[in-house]
Write a structure and sequence with these properties.
Blueprint: E1 2-4, H1 11-24, E2 30-32, E3 35-37, E4 41-43, E5 49-51, H2 52-61, E6 72-76, E7 81-86, E8 89-95, H3 96-99, H4 105-122, E9 126-128, H5 147-153, E10 157-162, H6 168-177, H7 181-184, E11 187-195, H8 199-213, E12 217-222, E13 249-254, E14 259-260, H9 266-269, E15 274-279, H10 282-286, E16 290-293, E17 295-296, H11 299-308, H12 311-320, E18 324-328, H13 330-334, E19 338-340, E20 351-353, E21 360-377, E22 386-398, E23 408-410, E24 415-416, E25 418-419, E26 424-427, H14 436-443, H15 447-450, H16 460-476, H17 481-488
Parallel strand pairs: 1-10, 2-9, 3-6, 10-11, 11-12, 13-15, 13-16, 16-18, 18-26, 19-21
Antiparallel strand pairs: 4-5, 6-7, 7-8, 14-17, 19-20, 21-22, 21-23, 23-24, 25-26
């Protein structure tokens, strides 16, 4: 089990690396995180919802993802409330205070432990991941995801600290000293992550830390920039905000406050014909050839904010000048005539006019759609099947304008999405931009611009497989793997 001194120390990536390492070494590993808080989620093959990080870890392990890998998912809706997804299905909204009270915790504890037990019967080893810091002493008695889960699983626990943010010795030592004696016995070693510089300068500190903590430092993993693993949250997106680039198709993704499933744009980022950037700056939006409105966990709240900060008006001005505008999921809902929420599914806002770009209207609904889908582009190449998945609350219907038509057709013949002219479209399908056929369709209006650009074949599946192998090699070469295996074989 990999736990951390805090959030964003690299637990998820380290767990991903070990899922691939164990697979390479001939084992059948699986990931597990009892409770995850993330807006970036994924749909399992049986149509249930889990955190994206565990789906990525399952992919690294070479297995299909399952809700037993992440039985409890919290999807923030505001600073204080989250939607609670249990075993892949939403069970209601809870504010933080009521969620972390003792009442009802044992029910959740039984559910997450049962999920782990089912997983452990099918896979070996199970690579567990903690959440946040292991030393949140105010939440110790209600913990479901860190050391209470380690006790249940009988896990060997490795504490991960991030040296890049500074103070790694204090954070590792302090985290261990705040544990109860019986908890401290679970910690078999520590891992220092994101190191830059000369390891010789760090070695005296490592020896002193081992003397102080009485556990070994199992490795020092260097910082990397050239390995690409899907990220769990969107904190890094603002750094991808370099504006207009000459000679390429410039695509702006609108930075929403509650942006979700930002991994929808990973393939576009690596298309040699495209310069993709994230922004909510109204001037930068005017420079884009294509504007993408992404998914959101709170459509009405983000739509209200787009109107307040002038982004909505900027999108409309750009579209009138010929900019292509495309919405995915919540972005698709915003592009319609109106979004209504009479049952207060999302919050207190009952109705807002949409951007008016598509002849559709959305009514929020408590029933959540989660499913993987196969589809083809309406009017596209015969026999060309694309894949994606849906995660949304809300029903969208066409309101008129007979010239508008579906964007896609699902495998069962059901029309999906909306296409109004060649420069305006919306869809509920996440992962639609992972399909080369759809990317070619999106970029087709700019073929004259692209005629000067080299078009390179890009196999996203092969790309990701190479990244997992590179990550495994990187971590393996800087971690004491013989000692890890001694722990797993109960030799220490």
């Amino acid at each position: 089990m990999f736990v951390g001194t805090g959030s964003d120390v690299g637990k998820s990536v380290i767990a991903t690396a070990f899922c691939r390492i164990f697979r390479q070494d001939g084992y059948r590993p699986a990931p597990f995180k009892a409770q995850n808080m993330a807006l970036n989620s994924f749909v399992t093959p049986d149509g249930l919802e889990i955190g994206r990080a565990q789906a990525v870890q399952a992919e690294a392990a070479g297995i299909a993802c399952h809700t037993d890998m992440n039985p409890l998912l919290l999807k923030p809706q505001s600073d204080h409330t989250s939607q609670v997804v249990l075993n892949g299905r939403p069970v209601g909204n809870r504010d933080a205070y009521s969620y972390f009270r003792q009442e009802g915790r044992e029910t959740l504890r039984r559910e997450v432990c049962a999920a782990y037990d089912r997983l452990a019967l099918r896979y070996n080893p199970v690579v567990l991941e903690g959440a946040g810091s292991i030393s949140e002493i105010n939440l110790r008695d209600t913990d479901l995801v860190n050391l209470s889960m380690a006790f249940h699983a009988g896990a060997d626990v490795i504490l991960v600290g991030d040296i890049d943010r500074g103070g790694v010795f204090a954070s590792l030592y302090g985290s261990l000293m705040l544990l109860r004696p019986e908890e401290r016995k679970l910690i078999k070693g520590v891992l220092i992550n994101k190191f830059r510089g000369d390891i010789r300068l760090l070695e005296p500190g490592i020896r002193m830390l081992e003397d102080l903590c009485q556990v070994p430092v199992l490795g020092v993993v260097p910082y990397y920039k050239d390995i690409y693993i899907e990220e769990e949250d969107s904190v890094s997106l603002a750094s991808k905000s370099m504006r207009h680039e000459q000679g390429k198709v410039n695509i702006a993704v609108v930075l929403l406050r509650h942006l979700s499933n930002f991994t929808d744009f990973n393939v576009l980022e690596r298309d040699s014909r495209v310069h993709l950037f994230y922004t909510n700056n109204v001037d930068e939006l005017q420079e884009a050839d294509i504007i993408l409105l992404p998914g959101t966990k709170s459509t009405l709240d983000d739509l209200y904010e787009l109107r307040r900060n002038g982004v909505a008006q900027a999108i409309l001005r750009a579209h009138r000048r010929g900019t292509v505008v495309m919405g995915i999921c919540g972005g698709y809902q915003m592009m319609g005539q109106e979004v209504t929420d009479p049952g207060h599914v999302e919050g207190s806002i009952e109705r807002l006019p949409g951007l008016g770009l598509l002849p559709v209207s959305t009514r929020m609904d408590r029933n959540k759609v989660t499913r993987q889908v196969k589809f083809h582009l309406e009017g596209g190449k015969p026999g060309c099947t694309c894949k994606g998945y849906e995660i949304h609350m809300g029903v969208t219907t066409q309101t008129g304008d007979a010239s508008a038509r579906p964007l896609n057709v699902l495998e069962d013949g059901t029309p999906e999405g909306c296409l109004a002219g060649r420069t305006c479209m919306g869809t509920y399908i996440h992962g639609i931009l992972d399909n080369p056929e759809f990317i070619d369709f999106l970029l087709e209006p700019f073929r004259e611009k692209m005629i000067r650009l080299p078009q390179e074949e890009f196999d996203y599946h092969l790309f990701k497989e190479r990244q997992y192998d590179r990550l495994a090699e990187h971590v393996r070469s800087h971690v004491d793997m013989p000692l890890i295996y001694q722990f797993l074989k109960n030799e220490l």
